[in-house]
Design goal:
Elements (H helix, E strand, L loop, with lengths): L7 H4 L10 H5 L7 E2 L2 H14 L7 H15 L5 H12 L3 H14 L3 H9 L10 H15 L2 E2 L15 H6 L6
Parallel strand pairs: 1-2
Helix pairs in contact: 3-4, 3-8, 4-5, 4-6, 4-8, 5-6
């Protein structure tokens, strides 16, 4: 698992974990760490995206969920490598994945205000890069779900899709 306790959105929270009372704990304001499967982590990430105003029917939201899942799970997380892995798994180009994710972020005007309230942190409105959004999603996930998984292996990496743009239109040559 990726150690994200040093995430700046977790460190700068208004409500530190030491301020929790038994009453707040019993009313699910603090998630206990639980071992689950990878599908549960993805479901939690989708719940975070849905509750923060993302439109789940957009491809960019799906790719953002895959990227955030890798951020949460992979101990050796590297954003560019994760984007490349997602692109290979679905049979697309890295630029297509980045464009779709950026479009879903731009379309969601409520994300930063809702995330600021959820985290108890004043997040500047210009924090809309993919790196910032994934870090915010990871922080929200850590606070409200706090799932862990034993295996960092993603099944879609074993059977990548065919990139028809590269295989047919470009005659197998890279752009």
């Amino acid at each position: 698992m990726h150690y994200i306790s040093d995430n700046i959105y977790l460190i700068n929270r208004v409500n530190p974990l030491a301020s929790y009372t038994l009453d707040r704990f019993l009313h699910n304001e603090l998630a206990i760490e639980r071992a689950v499967g990878l599908n549960d982590i993805r479901l939690g990430v989708y719940n975070v995206l849905l509750s923060h105003g993302f439109h789940l029917q957009l491809n960019g939201c799906e790719y953002l969920a895959l990227l955030a899942s890798r951020y949460i799970v992979k101990s050796d997380y590297n954003e560019q490598k994760a984007i490349s892995d997602i692109a290979i798994a679905i049979g697309a180009n890295d630029d297509f994945i980045v464009g779709c994710i950026n479009a879903s972020i731009i379309r969601n005007k409520e994300f930063i205000p809702i995330a600021s309230k959820t985290l108890g942190v004043a997040i500047p409105s210009d924090k809309t890069s993919i790196t910032d959004v994934v870090a915010i999603i990871g922080a929200v996930f850590k606070i409200y779900f706090n799932y862990t998984v034993d295996s960092e292996h993603f099944d879609e990496d074993d059977c990548p899709a065919i990139n028809f743009s590269r295989a047919i239109l470009d005659h197998g040559e890279k752009r």
